[in-house]
């Protein structure tokens, strides 16, 4: 089974607790205004990765990490792949799972009657990004979004959940910079300004 993926970045420390592997899936039909990952919207972009090969690669690294974070894009628009992957993660490793989605929890229950995701996800951050409700919080993008912790498949609203405050960076051999994190108000502009002083012209798309 193939999974359409935009990128894999590790280690990351700010989209879940502890040291993590981040997976950005490709494709999202929700089109939230102000989305900082607009290049991930096209479902035909990214690259197709064999799910079993990805899992086997993660197993080799799993002891050095605390968890997996899956974001995007919209993970739940590739539901079959998401569930198959999470089943392997939760039955074959000790990694915890944090998942971001633009759908609200009640929408997921309506779209996926099996509710299998509630068996495999430890933390779920749900809801559309709403630019006028932008949250200066490193856990979620806007105040309308919620954090749920699943215990025995039951979601509990978690008001105390917080991630590390630092950004995670990756520079590719092609000199592309990938940044993982949820920006506060003015933070993107500050990063661009700091990079420009060092001769790096960064465009967020």
Précis, in short:
Helices cover 23% and strands 26% of the residues. By secondary structure, the chain is of the alpha/beta class.
Question: Could you describe the 3D structure shown?
Answer:
The chain is of the alpha/beta class and 205 residues long. The chain has one domain: TIM Barrel. The chain has five helices and ten strands. The strands form two sheets. Strands 3-1-2-4-5-6-7-8 form an eight-stranded mixed sheet. It has a two-stranded antiparallel sheet with strand order 9-10. Helix 1 runs parallel beside helix 2. The longest helix is centred in the middle third of the chain and has 14 residues. The mean pLDDT is 86.
Question: What structural class do helix, strand and pairing data support?
Answer: alpha/beta
Number of individual domains: 1
Low-confidence stretches: none
- The CATH class, by name, is Alpha Beta
What's the count of strands? 10
Instruction: Return the CATH architecture.
Output: Alpha-Beta Barrel
Helical amount: 10-25%
Mean pLDDT: 86
**Radius of gyration (Å):** 16 Å
Strand order of the largest sheet: 3-1-2-4-5-6-7-8
Structural descriptors:
single chain; 205 residues; alpha/beta; TIM Barrel; eight-stranded mixed β-sheet; two-stranded antiparallel ribbon; 5 helices; 23% helix; 26% strand
């Amino acid at each position: 089974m193939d999974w359409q993926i935009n990128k894999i970045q590790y280690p990351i420390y700010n989209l879940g607790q502890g040291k993590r592997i981040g997976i950005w899936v490709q494709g999202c039909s929700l089109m939230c205004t102000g989305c900082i990952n607009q290049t991930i919207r096209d479902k035909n972009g990214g690259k197709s990765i064999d799910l079993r090969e990805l899992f086997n690669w993660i197993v080799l690294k799993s002891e050095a990490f605390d968890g997996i974070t899956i974001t995007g894009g919209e993970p739940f628009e590739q539901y079959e792949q998401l569930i198959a992957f999470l089943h392997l993660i939760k039955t074959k490793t000790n990694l915890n799972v944090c998942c971001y989605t633009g759908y609200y929890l009640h929408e997921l229950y309506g779209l996926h009657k099996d509710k299998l995701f509630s068996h495999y996800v430890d933390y779920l951050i749900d809801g559309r990004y709403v630019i006028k409700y932008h949250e200066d919080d490193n856990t979620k993008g806007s105040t309308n979004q919620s954090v749920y912790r699943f215990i025995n498949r039951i979601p509990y609203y978690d008001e105390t959940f917080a991630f590390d405050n630092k950004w995670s960076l990756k520079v590719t051999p092609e000199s592309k910079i990938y940044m993982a994190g949820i920006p506060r108000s003015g933070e993107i502009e500050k990063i661009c300004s700091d990079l420009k002083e060092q001769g790096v012209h960064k465009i967020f798309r």
